[in-house]
């Protein structure tokens, strides 16, 4: 219950896009497994192609956006850290004196 409470708060560490993508992937995987089992048993599982494609698009979109978002945030954090280090660090390689 605390996971759901934390999921819906504004200041959390949970990536909502990843949660939705994982849930959609789970439903899609279960559907494929059930389809394989019923096919093996000789019964046809009527599966609406539009619904399966919708879960596939949700999965790819959510996990893809989550990955791009993570990459962009990591790059921004690295840039901020580099600026802070440059401001705080003394000259490591002082200019050589002409002599």
Provide an overview of this structure.
This protein has 99 residues and is mostly helical. The protein has one domain (2-88). Helix content is 72%, strand content 0%. The chain has 3 helices and no strands. The chain has helices at residues 2-7, 16-40, 49-88. Helix 2 packs antiparallel against helix 3. The model has no long low-confidence stretch (mean pLDDT 75).
Main sheet specs: none
**Percent range for helical residues?**
over 70%
Rg from Cα:
24 Å
- Assembly state of the chains shown: single chain
Coarse morphology: elongated
Mean pLDDT over all positions: 75
Strand content: under 5%
* Unreliable residue runs: none
Number-wise, the strands total: 0
Counting structural domains, the number is 1
Number of helical elements: 3
Structural class: mainly alpha
Span of the ends, CA to CA: 72 Å
> Helix-strand pattern, N to C?
HHH
């Amino acid at each position: 219950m605390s996971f759901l409470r934390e999921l819906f708060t504004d200041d959390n560490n949970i990536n909502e896009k990843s949660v939705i993508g994982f849930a959609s992937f789970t439903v899609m995987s279960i559907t494929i497994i059930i389809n394989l089992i019923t096919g093996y048993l000789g019964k046809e599982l009527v599966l609406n192609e539009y619904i399966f494609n919708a879960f596939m698009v949700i999965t790819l979109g959510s996990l893809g956006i989550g990955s791009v978002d993570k990459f962009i945030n990591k790059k921004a954090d690295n840039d901020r850290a580099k600026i802070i280090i440059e401001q705080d660090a003394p000259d490591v390689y002082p200019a050589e004196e002409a002599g």
